[in-house]
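ligand=calcium ion
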Amino acid sequence: MSDSMVTRRRLWRRGAMLAAAVLAPLVLFAVLSWHGAQRRQRGDADDAARSIESHVVTIMTEAREAAVQLVPLTDLPCSALMPELTRRTAVVPYVRSLNVIDGDRISCSSALGIRSSPLTKFPGMPAHASDHAWATVVDSTPAVPDYPALAIGEPASGGRAVLAFVDSRYLTDLMHAVAPAGAFRDVELRIGGGAPIYASGEPPADAGDLGAPLAEHRFVAAGMPIVLRVYGLRSQLFAAWTALLQQAMPVAIVLSGLLAWLYCQRQRNFGSWREQLLRAIRDDEFHVVYQPLYGVSVRGCHGVEALLRWNRPDAGPVRPDVFIAAAEQSQVAVPLTRHLLKLIAADVRHWNTPPGFHLGINFPAEYLSDEHFPADLRPFLDAIADRQCQIVLEITERTLMKNTQQARLNLDTLRADGVKVAIDDFGTGYCSMSYLEMFPFDLMKVDRGFVMTIDPARGDAIVLDAIISLAHQLKAEVVAEGVDRPAQFDYLLARGVSYMQGYLYAKPMPSAEFVAWYARAGQQPFECGETAARAPDNVIGPGDAHPTRG
Ligand code: C2E
Ligand code: CA
Ligand code: CA
């Protein structure tokens, strides 16, 4: 898989994770609000059903009571019974009329008097009304035809029964009041086996029209089984959802912002340095830039120093001094250097440099004192053998070297193999004089700090002069670092410095740029000093993307 594909895939993954962090609370709150709205709607329906239930029980119990009290009087003639029927109809709440059934006819009625009507006139009435207690809904009553009523029958002796009619309007009004049409779709009440009563007054056109009930109560009233169903309105559910969403969304938005921020923070500080660096190696986030070295003897580019760069896809470049120090402290310096060698080997294959071209590589102290170091380096040396580069090991003392004896042995082995050793950052706190005693070396790299002390007006830089003279006495060639002004160049040249490294000659550049630069300018004589520095061709070097030093 190509680098760009890996990067793109990673960016996609991170984008998806970020989107998930933002969306998760919003979706969660939306779903919770939806369930909350459903629960609230069901709760409201249940409350309504409970209220209707208690009223239905009261109405039916009153009517049944009125009928039961009349049972002992049913053998009286209708004329004697009438005043009592009328009186009770007036005083018992909800009852429209009280009647006596004799066989298959209503023989006496508080509404119609002595007139006898066959039961068949009232569809839904049971055929044997005097057999047992019953209740049903009928479409009409003797006094109010075509208007439904609740009929409650109580058996009496001699094939007679008492029948109480309750106006169904009581029931529909009750259902309306408790479960209004704006809040609920409809309420259905089934008493015994009779036709259902609807709050809307109209049975639905289609049986499934009302959908599933929000609440269903089954109970017994006046000895009759009752089923009560409350049906919800979809618009009410959405209104409840919207109301809940309005309450929940500000919290959800804050939460999703917080999650997104936490995710970004976590990405930034993902795991420890160790994890981050190892992951970056795996994900191929490193590349190498090469800074040309001016060689006085060849009056042009005599070599390069390889400098590692880490460009994080999500956070941009990381300063080398930061990640190198972190790698050294988190025991990743060795795997990182192995990775660096692989990157260099891949780059060097495309170069067109002459034999003996210096290739300076920075090695951490930990690696130098590792007994496997020379063997580890072998595949790299073999891989670039074709180019016949002069490998220069740059060693500095950033972390304490644990096994100096082993390091010395390793350097001896490698030097015998033709590798050169440079003491890097000489003169800084990093690299003490003890290194000179301890390790064999060929080059001494004088730190930029000393080069900066060159003052053309004063004409000398005492410590720098002493370092250069010390190096010469130790038979080491001197590399001056950070040479970025012609006056420094002239000064160092006059004191026998062999190599200059600095922005005056060239900045660090990626391998492909270096190849082009080397073909164009690297092999040209660099006319040093004040006059040369004014010639633009000689000072240019491709810009370094590196953020730390200017
Ligand atoms: P160093 O080994 O002393 O590398 C030279 C540093 O000086 C580089 O900084 C380079 O960009 C900078 N430099 C060169 N010429 C000039 C100049 O004229 N002016 C200024 N201001 N700076 C100049 P860089 O690349 O930031 O590296 C910093 C340090 O990080 C290096 O110092 C080295 O100690 C470490 N480092 C970089 N790459 C590697 C690596 O691959 N392995 C190890 N172990 N350390 C590395
Ligand atoms: Ca170096
Ligand atoms: Ca250095």
